[in-house]
Specification:
mainly alpha; 2 helices; 0% strand
Length: 65
Protein backbone atom coordinates (compact mmCIF):
# COMPACT_ATOMS: atom_id res chain seq x y z
CA UNK A 1 0.00 0.00 0.00
CA UNK A 2 2.89 2.38 0.69
CA UNK A 3 4.13 1.89 -2.87
CA UNK A 4 0.70 2.73 -4.27
CA UNK A 5 0.45 5.92 -2.20
CA UNK A 6 3.97 6.91 -3.27
CA UNK A 7 3.11 6.41 -6.94
CA UNK A 8 -0.08 8.47 -6.52
CA UNK A 9 1.92 11.33 -4.98
CA UNK A 10 4.50 11.18 -7.77
CA UNK A 11 1.68 11.26 -10.32
CA UNK A 12 0.14 14.28 -8.57
CA UNK A 13 3.46 16.11 -8.71
CA UNK A 14 3.89 15.20 -12.38
CA UNK A 15 0.36 16.43 -13.12
CA UNK A 16 1.07 19.75 -11.43
CA UNK A 17 4.34 20.23 -13.31
CA UNK A 18 2.71 19.19 -16.57
CA UNK A 19 -0.15 21.61 -16.03
CA UNK A 20 2.31 24.44 -15.43
CA UNK A 21 4.23 23.59 -18.60
CA UNK A 22 1.02 23.40 -20.64
CA UNK A 23 -0.15 26.73 -19.22
CA UNK A 24 3.18 28.41 -20.07
CA UNK A 25 3.03 27.07 -23.65
CA UNK A 26 -0.40 28.60 -24.20
CA UNK A 27 -2.65 25.55 -24.05
CA UNK A 28 -6.37 26.16 -23.59
CA UNK A 29 -6.87 26.98 -19.90
CA UNK A 30 -9.34 24.15 -19.38
CA UNK A 31 -6.71 21.41 -19.76
CA UNK A 32 -4.18 22.66 -17.18
CA UNK A 33 -6.98 23.45 -14.74
CA UNK A 34 -8.33 19.92 -15.03
CA UNK A 35 -4.83 18.53 -14.46
CA UNK A 36 -4.42 20.63 -11.31
CA UNK A 37 -7.89 19.55 -10.14
CA UNK A 38 -6.94 15.88 -10.61
CA UNK A 39 -3.68 16.42 -8.72
CA UNK A 40 -5.60 17.98 -5.81
CA UNK A 41 -7.99 15.02 -5.73
CA UNK A 42 -5.07 12.57 -5.72
CA UNK A 43 -3.34 14.43 -2.86
CA UNK A 44 -6.60 14.52 -0.90
CA UNK A 45 -6.98 10.76 -1.30
CA UNK A 46 -3.45 10.19 0.01
CA UNK A 47 -4.20 12.51 2.93
CA UNK A 48 -7.38 10.59 3.74
CA UNK A 49 -5.37 7.37 3.97
CA UNK A 50 -2.41 8.73 5.94
CA UNK A 51 -3.66 11.46 8.31
CA UNK A 52 -4.58 10.03 11.72
CA UNK A 53 -8.04 10.57 13.19
CA UNK A 54 -8.86 11.75 16.71
CA UNK A 55 -7.85 8.38 18.21
CA UNK A 56 -4.41 8.58 16.59
CA UNK A 57 -4.98 5.76 14.10
CA UNK A 58 -4.49 6.31 10.39
CA UNK A 59 -6.64 4.23 8.01
CA UNK A 60 -3.46 2.86 6.41
CA UNK A 61 -2.50 1.34 9.76
CA UNK A 62 -5.71 -0.70 9.81
CA UNK A 63 -5.03 -2.39 6.44
CA UNK A 64 -3.78 -5.94 6.79
CA UNK A 65 -0.59 -6.86 4.93
Amino acid sequence: MNIVLSIVMLAAIALTVGAFVMWRRGAPPKQPLLMVFLAIIAMANVAIWTVPDSSGEAPIDQVEN
